[in-house]
Amino acid sequence: MDRKRPDWLVRAAGVLRREGIDIQVVLAGNDFSGGAKAAELAALAQREGLADRYEYLGPRSDVPDILRGLDVLVLASERDKEAFPRIVVEAMACGVPVLATAVAGIPEAVSDGETGLLVDPDDFDGFVAALRRLAMDEELRRRYGAAS
Fold it and tell me: Rounded to an integer, what distance in angstroms lies between the CA atom of residue 52 and that of residue 38?
């Protein structure tokens, strides 16, 4: 879909939803706006059983406010296609734990097991497991967010 792979988040959330885990997906930013990409993601959310738990906010100027409303920032970037996604540091500055793929400069910002979880960018099952772990453990999310 693109270097940030929002489809991984939607697909993983669908897996968790089918397991009975209540999860909501909120996407924001320029990367997914404009016709085909936004429509593809909405259709994927529908197929994954997330139609009532999926929202695309579009480009926003109130990023800190949005970040403070999240339980977890999720970024499933592809290998060798990301430089240093500033959103990771912005989320951590807002006390939000991070689930991300271990690419580019992300491992320098996110301390795996301390401020969030890092997964191999080729391991979708590991990504789902990490999302499940964070979704199911409010204390872990609180601890990672505080450490950020």
Answer: 16
**Rounded to an integer, what distance in angstroms lies between the CA atom of residue 57 and that of residue 39?**
13
- pLDDT reported for residue 33: 57
Question: 37-62 b/e with 16+ CB inside 10 Å = b?
Answer: beeebbebbeebebeebbebeeeeee
Q: Could you give the 3-state DSSP secondary structure of residue 27?
A: strand
Cβ atoms of 102 and 120 within 8 Å: the answer is yes
Q: What contacts 5, CB < 8 A, 6 or more positions away?
A: 76, 77, 78
- The model's pLDDT over 47-94, given as tens digits with 9 standing for 90+, comes to 999 989 999 998 889 999 999 999 999 999 998 877 888 999 999 999
pTM confidence score: 0.93
Distance, CA of 31 to CA of 58 (rounded, Å): 9
The torsion of the CA quartet 86, 116, 144, 57, rounded to 10 degrees, works out to 50
Tokens 């085909």, located at residue: 36
